[in-house]
Amino acid sequence: DDMLVGDDRSEQYEQIEAQNDKKELNLTLIIYGGLVLSAVYMMVCLLTLNGWPVTNTQLTSNSVIELVETVPDVLNVQRENRETYLSWLDVINSAEKEICITAYYSTMFCMDTEQNKCKDNARQVIAALEKTNATIKLLIDGNGFGDFADIEYYQQNFKNFQVKYINYSQLFSGVQHTKIIIGDKKSFYVGSSNLDWRALTEVKEVGLYVTGEPETAEIRSYFDQLWELGTAQRDQLANQRQIQKSKEIYNKFSLKNPLKLNDSQFHIASSPAQQNAFTRTHDLESIVKVIDSANKTLFIEAMDWAPFLVYSKPQQMWGH
């Protein structure tokens, strides 16, 4: 789960930074839902400020984007960004009507290791979800990891809880790899972190916390599309009517028609292409756009980077 940043920087960056000139922020959230023929497990985002990474940027008077991350304690590195779980708490606690969540799997209770090794980050998230009066909608991969014991707990302990399952492997191929948490139309998190206590403590993760109504409404349209494809039972498949209806949930903004925010531009791209409404940009198009925009350097953060299908049996070169 990764980040790709295109760099068009000059050698005089320090001078430019000191001048504090206005920069243009081109933000693309790339969401790999099905991971179709993907050699790299990529989910997150492309973030450039004239090619430079941005940690916290005011998009408009009402919109902010913030880089958040999980850095394992064993890594002796400088921590400059807020922790992932804090952004999750912000989204959950701000919601009054609905909290919408997508994940590959859920293992939030730290039951498979010594309890004294577990921080309470995940416990704080669960406590916030138990406390909220907002309806919680969870979309999860029907073939995901784990024994789904978390789901039973959610059904018993969350006040207003709904769950749907999606089986990408049978619908399109691949898996439901999108990880987002949306609070009403106020804010959202999108990133690499699953609903997993490790993702909040032990695994290097990166994501974006975004506030703003138009931005949140845009990613909510993507969630609504996935929700339409979901089913009540793990072994069920969406029928053709559901598939067609999901493609009729349109988004407003795309690579060719981005949301304009002062000096910034915003759109969401996703895969697989087969599920996208005609208004949605395919993520491959946005990835290529960022790569093409770089004159000197590309910054890529990846879980796996190999020219073959790492998880296929037998393994084969990508594209064959």
From TrEMBL:
Lineage of origin: Eukaryota, Metamonada, Diplomonadida, Hexamitidae, Hexamitinae
Residue ranges crossing the lipid bilayer per the database entry: 29-52
InterPro entries referenced in this protein's UniProt entry, alphabetically: Diverse_PLD-related, PLD-like_dom, PLipase_D/transphosphatidylase
Domain annotation PLD phosphodiesterase: ranges: 172-199
This protein's UniProt keywords: Membrane, Transmembrane, Transmembrane helix
UniProt key word Transmembrane helix: yes
Full protein name: PLD-like domain-containing protein
Pfam family, one: PLDc_2
Parts forming coiled coils: none
Signal peptide: none
Superkingdom of the organism of origin: Eukaryota
Gene Ontology molecular-function annotations: catalytic activity
PANTHER family: GM01519P-RELATED, PHOSPHOLIPASE D - RELATED
